[in-house]
Amino acid sequence: MKVTFKDVTLSYDGKIDTLKHLNFEIPDGSLVSLLGPSGGGKTTTLNLISGLLPATSGHIYFGDEDVTKKDALARKVGMVFQNYSLYPHLSVRDNIAFPLKMQHVSRKERYAKAEELAKLVHVDDQLDKKPGELSGGQQQRVAIARALAKSPSLLLLDEPLSNLDARLRIEMRQEIRRIQRETGVTTIFVTHDQDEALHISDNIMVLSFGKIQQFSAPDDLYERPSNLFVAKFIGEPVINTLPAETLKADLQGHVPDEIFAKAVTAGLRSEALVPFDNGQGILTTFHATLAYKQKYGREATAALNYNGQTLLSTEMAGLPADQKEGDFFITKAGFFLFDEAGALIFGGEAHDQ
Ligand SMILES: Nc1ncnc2c1ncn2[C@@H]1O[C@H](COP(=O)(O)OP(=O)(O)O)[C@@H](O)[C@H]1O
Ligand SMILES: [Mg+2]
């Protein structure tokens, strides 16, 4: 089911707008993540989609139908939460079948559906157990199966993996992707974890301060962040930022003057600072001293001192150990300029190729 928001605003207290004029379209059959820091408005947005929360203004459409005034039951969404919220006294079979029981579907039919869904989420060998006898990952599989029982218009998941340990989170995010592909159900997945969002989504909506900061394909967030917030939020290590003015001499002739005049902040990904021109598209050169080099496992980082700023590079592993300074290169990919409002005004060429 396609979901469209037209100028949707939400205020909890009638004074402050928690969500400000949201406009977006989630294509039918896709998996979209809502990604952002805590308090950014992810759960609020999800609750507006589900109908648990009425919009203060604006319109919400499922397909071509205006559902703004429809309640959660009428919207027929399936929901999964961080804490599983299974019924502890019911078996796995009865938990999955529960929504169908509420709809007075016959016992035979609802158990057949429960078994089919248990197979889909790989808990078909656990049907007679109680939730308390299952691992966290298995419980979340059961919760997903239950959410799918009513053949929902949408599957909504609010930080479903946050209670699981790191290894299981990786396994489960792949499972959610697989289940979404197999069922084709339009899925909206809330997370504050960029890695999670980048790995499973067709598209990612970055939400912060109640606004959509960017809504695009995962690679675009990294290669062409629309603003400084996204540039700093996505990527590990965090992008180097410095006053654009610092780079003025080295950018002269490489960035159009009228663009540079508006630039306030420069962003340089750590892999955009390289020791040699190896043909990957060089923007300019700069002279810097090496503050330190560090190596852990496969990763080597170096800190460069440049015009009073420190820049982190992950590409300096090949330099001689005793090298103290040198002329280095900035690649076009991973170099950005932002204006006073934080909007991207230069860079993102990697995307154009
Ligand atoms: N029921 C509520 N009443 C009042 N304010 C709320 C309520 N729920 C959330 N908020 C506020 O709305 C903002 C967004 O919250 P939320 O949507 O839960 O963010 P997220 O899920 O991204 O962490 C926060 O400032 C939060 O304090
Ligand atoms: Mg939340």
TrEMBL record:
Record InterPro entries: AAA+_ATPase, ABC_transporter-like_ATP-bd, ABC_transporter-like_CS, ABC_transpr_FbpC, ABC_transpr_MalK/UgpC-like, P-loop_NTPase
Domain spans labelled ABC transporter: 3-234
Keywords recorded for this protein, A-Z: ATP-binding, Cell membrane, Membrane, Nucleotide-binding, Transport
Pfam families: ABC_tran (PF00005)
Entry superkingdom: Bacteria
Keyword Chaperone: no
GO molecular function: ATP binding
Gene3D superfamilies cross-referenced by the UniProt entry: 2.40.50.100, P-loop containing nucleotide triphosphate hydrolases (3.40.50.300)
Protein's recorded name: ABC transporter ATP-binding protein
